[in-house]
Fold:
Amino acid sequence: MPTDVSSASPEVIYPLSGKRVWVAGHRGMVGQALARRLQREGCEILTARRADVDLKRQAEVEAWMGRVRPDAIFVAAAKVGGILANDSYPADFLYDNLMIQANIVESAFRSGVGKLMLLGSSCIYPKFAPQPITEDALLTGPLEPTNEWYAIAKIAGIRLGQAYRRQHDFDVISAMPTNLYGPGDNFDLNSSHVLPALIRKAHEAKVSDAGSFTIWGTGAPRREFLHSEDCADACVHLMKVYSDAEHVNVGSGEDIAIYDLAWLVSEVVGFRGEIKRDTSKPDGTPRKLMSADRLRALGWTPKIDLRTGVSNVYAAFAAETAVSV
Ligand code: GFB
Structure:
């Protein structure tokens, strides 16, 4: 009976068991999820505190890498933020992310690291890319102005990895997650992404018995969301089974209008008031649903649906908020 190769998971070409794996950015939401997920791989998980090494300082990264000598690296360290933060601090988002990536890739190559994963974002694609966005849409049109700085840094990361693969045969792969949410997210209303912001706004409106909360923009843009635990699982899967120059989209394959997301969050939180819109705030990209075909063909599918994911993030947020009051 021939094996149905379409359903078979691809061969593990880079097992993590027994390897020393550095999660750069282990304190961030994605880094925390990666460190938790890697506990199932039988590998030694390496971390570096900001006090140990400033990833923007080449000499410090070279010294740390030469001393610790990881076998594999997930570069989850980045300067990240929502639409307003990106639009407000272009130099920080471009410079910080360029330096972090360049320092880690160069030092990793020089110290003989076996494999490295760079993490980007769906904002690397053109503002009006045909949807769902396939990986070959990269650099085919103008970027969304509010986050072009971060996008250019992440596109540079993809090209950096391709250059080191081509010139030095260094096994660098790039994963492009969609909008992420999860435990350890940033809930600051000025710098956060939309989902944690809506959770906090709906919660505070409920507990203060306010009649409404306000979302930014028109609420018409659509966004795709993936839970950070799913993202970490996909990244570990890719590290084990994928080795090629082309980046891989990491998404759920489904999107939702921001206004409908606000209603979903209100239902989960238990807020029954009005949702208002502040159209003085930017909408950003109208839509950035990515094609998931390449990742699905590599044998990975997400497990956490949006309502379940939002519910478990809200439960943790409400518990932490209650304690901190
Ligand atoms: O998540 P977000 O800040 O970033 O905004 P992007 C998504 C959409 O939600 C925008 C709307 O249309 C916002 O106007 N929105 C509504 C809100 N209410 C709020 C709110 O209270 N807070 C926030 N933050 N948004 C980011 C990039 O773009 O996507 C990053 O700037 C990164 O660099 C990330 O690429 C994945 O999805 O527009």
Q: What stands out?
A: Residues 82-83, 86, 121, 123, 147, 150, 179, 192-194, 197, 215-217, 221, 223, 258, 281-285 surround GFB (CB under 6 Å).
